[in-house]
Amino acid sequence: MSALHGTPLTRHGSRVPAMPNRPATVQTTSAPARRSAPTQATSAPAVTPAPTIGTMIVCLPDELPAEALTAHRLPTQFGVAGTVTPLFWAVGQLRLWQRQKMIGLRKGRPAACAGGPVRLLDLRGMRDAAGVGAGIRYQVWQQVVHGTRPATPWPVFESRHLTDPQKYPFEAATADFHAQPRVNAMRMHAAATPGTGQPNPGELEMYQAGQMAYQHYHAASAIAGDALLTVDGRKLAPASDALTHRVTYLEQALRYLDTVEPDQRLLAVAL
Question: How far is the CA of 103 from the CAs of 92, 230, 267, in angstroms?
C-alpha cells in the first residue's frame, strides 16, 4: 500500500559553494578593500529510507461479513493490495461454532490462522513463543560476533546513499556495510551453517540494543506485524527501518491493540 511506503523519493544533490564576492573597484585609500563573507555550501537534507512492510494487521469493521474474507485477495474497500496470511494462533479447544468465526484456520497445535475475534486468538502465547525464540537467536548471535566492535546498521548507509546517490552509489553503501567485521562474522556464520534461524544482518541494530530489547522487539512484532490499519481507517507504520522508528510504531500498535474489544476481528495481510 503506497501510504505505508511513503512518498516517492527525490534525488538530492549538494550545491557548489558560491565564490566570494569581490569589490567592483579598488579603493584609493590605504585601507584594505573589504570582501563579503563567502557563501556557505548548502548540504542536501538527509533522506529517510522507506520502511520495509511485509505484514500488516487489519482491524476489520463489524459490518463486514465473514464471507467477504474467504477469497485470497482482500476487498478493495480497504485499499490494501495484499493476501491473507496465517500469522496468528487460535486458542486451544475451539468449538465448532467458534471455528466458523476464524479466518483461514489450519490444522495443527497451535492452529495457525489469518485472523478472527481477539478473544479466540492466542496473542499471549504468540508473544511468549516469539520472545523465547528471539532469546535463543540472541545467544547464538552473541557467540558469533564475540570480539568484534559494534557496527553501523544498514539504514544509516541507505540514508546516506539516498541523500546523494551520485556521490555515494548503492554498491558503495552495500560494500561499506558488508566490510564491517561484525557484519562479516554474521555472514560467515550463515554461510558455514545454512538453515533457518540464522542471525540476520538486517537486525543488527536490534541485536546491539541488548538481549532483553531484542526479545521484547520480536515479542511485540509477533502480534503487531510491520504496520496496522485501525478499524476507523488510520494507518500506523514506522517512519523507517531504524530501530527508534520501529519502537515508536510498536508502542502505538500495542497501545491500540490493548483497547480493542474481545469481539474485534483482526486479520493478517502479507503485502
Answer: 15, 18, 8
Given a contact cutoff of 8 angstroms between Cβ atoms, the answer to whether 40 and 20 are in contact is no
The span from the CA of 267 to the CA of 221, in Å, is: 15
> How many CB atoms are located within 10 Å of the residue 101 CB?
18
Give the whole-angstrom CA distance, residue 165 versus residue 55: 29
Residue 265: in which H helix or E strand, if any? strand 265-270
Listed range (18-32, 68-82, 105-119, 162-176) with the worst mean pLDDT = 18-32
Closest CA to 14 of 165, 156, 158, 154: 165
Alpha-helical regions (H) of 108-210: 123-144, 154-163, 170-178, 181-192, 204-208
Neighbours of 184 (CB within 10 A): 15
Q: Judge contact between 269 and 83, C-beta under 8 A.
A: yes
Question: Per the structure block, which three cell numbers stand in for 44?
Answer: 542536501
Residue 194 has a pLDDT of: 87
What percentage of residues in the chain have a pLDDT greater than 70? 78
Give me the half-sphere count of Cα atoms (radius 13 Å) on the Cβ side of residue 198.
16
**Mean pLDDT, to the nearest integer, of 192-207?**
92
Burial category of 5 from C-beta neighbours within 10 Å (exposed 0-12, middle 13-18, buried 19 and up): middle
pTM: 0.80
Measuring CA to CA, which residue among 130, 135, 238, 153 is closest to residue 201?
A: 153
The one-character DSSP state at 67 is G
Tell how far CA 244 is from the center of its chain.
10
